[in-house]
Amino acid sequence: HTVTKPPPNPSPLRNSKFFQSNMRILVTGGAGFIGSHLVDKLMENEKNEVIVADNYFTGSKDNLRKWIGHPRFELIRHDVTEPLLIEVDQIYHLACPASPIFYKYNPVKTIKTNVIGTLNMLGLAKRVGARILLTSTSEVYGDPLVHPQTESYWGNVNPIGVRSCYDEGKRVAETLMFDYHRQHGIEIRIARIFNTYGPRMNIDDGRVVSNFIAQALRDEPLTVQAPGTQTRSFCYVSDMVDGLIRLMEGENTGPINIGNPGEFTMLELAETVKELINPNVKIIMVENTPDDPRQRKPDITKATELLGWEPKVKLRDGLPFMEEDFRQRLGVQKKK
Ligand code: NAD
Ligand code: UDP
Ligand code: UDP
């Protein structure tokens, strides 16, 4: 007798006329800061069905409350270190704590999330033939010896330091993505995200922009970690989401830097927050954490040329949106 081979796509319905123009998209980490803004944007397109898988380690249902109950939206409590069996066309794989205090809290879990979590999402992509995008990070460049950072730079990362669970975890995640691409023909996209800020960041997550804004609103001193001359380049979240979607929809695997090249020292950032939000607040110098990168600025030539993308929101224009969101959440009125 003959053995019938199972269809290559496990869900034959996905090939039916009904589904053809629809896109079912999985967003891991979709209850987090960037993920929830990405979900908002994807849901604007009526042809998209969005599934979020998140374990709520640093994210919350609250970030997605406007979509809960929507017929094109589904929220699953799921840890990506466990296998996930669903049928989707695209995977935006964001699940991973991004703030140093959270990723250092349980470093072994951070590595598992990056390595086993990414392996599982690649296994899923392979089984269903989905395209997968990984949100990697500028941290793969470590404390960079090349400035600004281009994608061809291999980085300067401490393999045994307190940040390594995140930096090396993401480096392995990138390697896995390319190995699945070369070995199994999976369609991959890698974004190297630089510091991103905006509404819905965790108020006490320890990242510099959220710290300074919360401190300014609470009349507490802004804590600049020594020496204060270290630099970062901050991208507003709507620009980031636009870049991620362009990368997913485009033809390039990446890695591609997505970030805002406007570079500031932490002292300059503190002065800007003070000027815009609370001119009476003090700025103090506190001790830094180990392995803090001294400078960081993306070279975005590739994003501009290949994706037609560049950031639109300047730091001074983005900070007030975040201030407004933090005021509401902290219950601090603007002084007249
Ligand atoms: P976030 O902490 O707000 O969001 C991460 C989300 O992933 C949270 O909802 C969290 O609950 C979820 N998560 C964590 N571990 C999980 C697990 N094991 N299983 C399922 N869900 C899990 O962070 P974010 O700023 O929105 O960052 C999103 C992505 O972008 C991350 O991959 C991060 O590494 C990357 N990134 C962010 C920045 C930035 O400046 N925000 C910079 C570089 C890279
Ligand atoms: N996986 C998953 N969902 C799927 C298919 C696979 O989570 O739909 C997981 C699977 O549990 C495995 C990983 O992805 O741990 C890698 O899968 P792959 O098929 O590439 O490797 P193998 O299972 O052969 O080790
Ligand atoms: N930083 C600071 N004060 C704070 C928190 C952070 O001066 O209250 C500095 C930190 O030393 C680093 C920069 O701000 O040089 C960015 O830190 P963050 O944790 O926001 O992101 P990452 O280090 O991952 O870029």
TrEMBL record:
Main location: cytoplasm
CDD domains registered for this protein in UniProt: UGD_SDR_e
Record flagged with keyword Lyase: yes
Keywords annotated in UniProt: Cytoplasm, Decarboxylase, Lyase, NAD
NAD(P)-binding domain: residues covered: 26-319
Record-listed E.C. numbers: 4.1.1.35
Subcellular location: Cytoplasm
Recorded catalytic activity of this chain's protein: UDP-alpha-D-glucuronate + H(+) = UDP-alpha-D-xylose + CO2
Pathway per the UniProt entry: Nucleotide-sugar biosynthesis; UDP-alpha-D-xylose biosynthesis; UDP-alpha-D-xylose from UDP-alpha-D-glucuronate: step 1/1
Annotated spans, Disordered: 1-14
Matching SUPFAM superfamilies: NAD(P)-binding Rossmann-fold domains
MF terms (GO), sorted A to Z: NAD+ binding; UDP-glucuronate decarboxylase activity
Essential cofactor(s): NAD(+)
GO cellular component: cytoplasm
GO biological process: D-xylose metabolic process; UDP-D-xylose biosynthetic process
Pfam families according to UniProt: GDP_Man_Dehyd (PF16363)
Annotated family: Belongs to the NAD(P)-dependent epimerase/dehydratase family. UDP-glucuronic acid decarboxylase subfamily.
Its job: Catalyzes the NAD-dependent decarboxylation of UDP-glucuronic acid to UDP-xylose. Necessary for the biosynthesis of the core tetrasaccharide in glycosaminoglycan biosynthesis.
Protein known as: UDP-glucuronate decarboxylase
Organism whose genome encodes this protein: Nelumbo nucifera
Gene: LOC104594584
